[in-house]
Design brief:
single chain; alpha+beta; two-stranded antiparallel ribbon; 1 helix; rod-shaped
Length: 61
Protein backbone atom coordinates (compact mmCIF):
# COMPACT_ATOMS: atom_id res chain seq x y z
CA UNK A 1 0.00 0.00 0.00
CA UNK A 2 1.31 3.46 -0.88
CA UNK A 3 2.11 5.64 2.09
CA UNK A 4 2.86 9.39 1.86
CA UNK A 5 6.48 10.23 2.67
CA UNK A 6 5.55 13.55 4.34
CA UNK A 7 2.48 15.18 5.78
CA UNK A 8 0.74 17.50 3.30
CA UNK A 9 0.88 21.07 4.59
CA UNK A 10 -2.23 23.18 5.06
CA UNK A 11 -1.11 25.48 2.23
CA UNK A 12 -0.68 22.64 -0.27
CA UNK A 13 -3.99 21.10 0.76
CA UNK A 14 -5.75 24.45 0.47
CA UNK A 15 -4.22 25.18 -2.94
CA UNK A 16 -5.45 21.86 -4.24
CA UNK A 17 -8.96 22.45 -2.90
CA UNK A 18 -9.19 26.02 -4.23
CA UNK A 19 -10.76 24.85 -7.48
CA UNK A 20 -13.61 23.17 -5.60
CA UNK A 21 -15.13 26.57 -4.80
CA UNK A 22 -15.35 27.65 -8.46
CA UNK A 23 -18.89 28.15 -9.72
CA UNK A 24 -20.44 28.54 -13.15
CA UNK A 25 -20.53 32.13 -14.41
CA UNK A 26 -23.76 34.00 -13.73
CA UNK A 27 -25.78 35.81 -16.38
CA UNK A 28 -28.54 38.37 -16.11
CA UNK A 29 -31.20 39.36 -18.62
CA UNK A 30 -30.63 42.84 -20.02
CA UNK A 31 -33.52 45.23 -19.34
CA UNK A 32 -33.37 46.97 -22.72
CA UNK A 33 -32.57 44.23 -25.23
CA UNK A 34 -33.63 41.14 -23.29
CA UNK A 35 -30.32 39.47 -24.14
CA UNK A 36 -28.33 37.54 -21.55
CA UNK A 37 -25.10 39.21 -20.42
CA UNK A 38 -22.62 39.07 -17.56
CA UNK A 39 -23.34 41.40 -14.61
CA UNK A 40 -21.36 44.66 -14.71
CA UNK A 41 -20.41 44.11 -18.37
CA UNK A 42 -21.31 45.98 -21.55
CA UNK A 43 -24.12 44.52 -23.63
CA UNK A 44 -22.24 43.90 -26.89
CA UNK A 45 -25.39 43.69 -29.01
CA UNK A 46 -26.58 47.22 -28.15
CA UNK A 47 -23.30 48.70 -26.92
CA UNK A 48 -24.90 50.10 -23.76
CA UNK A 49 -23.78 50.00 -20.15
CA UNK A 50 -26.07 51.24 -17.35
CA UNK A 51 -28.30 52.94 -19.91
CA UNK A 52 -25.46 54.90 -21.55
CA UNK A 53 -24.24 54.31 -25.11
CA UNK A 54 -20.61 53.25 -24.67
CA UNK A 55 -19.82 51.40 -27.93
CA UNK A 56 -21.28 51.43 -31.40
CA UNK A 57 -23.83 48.60 -31.76
CA UNK A 58 -22.64 45.51 -33.61
CA UNK A 59 -23.60 45.46 -37.27
CA UNK A 60 -26.03 42.70 -38.19
CA UNK A 61 -24.19 40.21 -40.38
Amino acid sequence: MAVPRKKVSRMKRGSRRAADALAAPTYVEDKDSGERRRPHHIDLKTGKYKGRQVLQPKAEA
